Amino acid sequence: MLIKLLKYDLKWIYKVVAVFYCLSLFFSVTSFCFSKVENSALFSGLYTFSNAFAIAMVVNGVINSIIRAWVRFRNNIYKDESYLTHTLPVSLNLIYLSKVLSAVICIFTSTAVAAGCLVICFWNNNSIVDYLKTMLESAAGSFNLSAGSLFAALFFEIFLQLVFILLLGYNGMILGHRSGRNKMVTSIIVGFAMYTVSNTVTVLLIFAAGLFDDGIMNLIETSDTVDISAVKTVLLFALILYAVYNAVFYIMGSRLLKKGVDVE
Question: What pLDDT was estimated at residue 23?
Fold first, then answer.
């Protein structure tokens, strides 16, 4: 049953998001083609135009992955479609799992498409490519990692934070719809409040870690020479912390839904 739920959820989300994927790829490829024409003011302008549109479509693809997932969740759980959803012979926990998995899959593909399109856009721009390559290799060497490993770590860091925002939205809606009125406004306020509290906790935990590690404390207090090992520790800490946040907010949402739903 989970596979069927996932199929319908993914189909609904991708129906719009796939348009942004296609536009992103189209403008990325045209940008790549225009960049191969040298000493032409016209093609230089077209290259800049295509780049701008490709980046805009990439950003829209990522943002709409989250927004469409939120809309799907609200429609299926609380709006008119909820009457059909709640008659299905499945538990709310399974429905919630489907919503989370479909959104996570879509966020992952959107982030991957974004990375791929940006590579295509700037592939022939030697100055940018050389700069990024040098910076990545230098950073990777400092962290005692391969360039690929560092890129994967940064990609995963962004991905976890996007999933974190997604789950905050789900929990905000669940708690907001328990209020008597202005449910949508309350959902936004609750979600933003949880986001603020979570990030405040993150900062406090990093500060607490700094009390036991001079390198981390130097990152907080000064802009002097950076201790690479401290930066590496903070990045690893952030990866683990956001993974924990995601697990906590997933469990929280599942348990809140299990207590019942107030359909609009």
Answer: 92
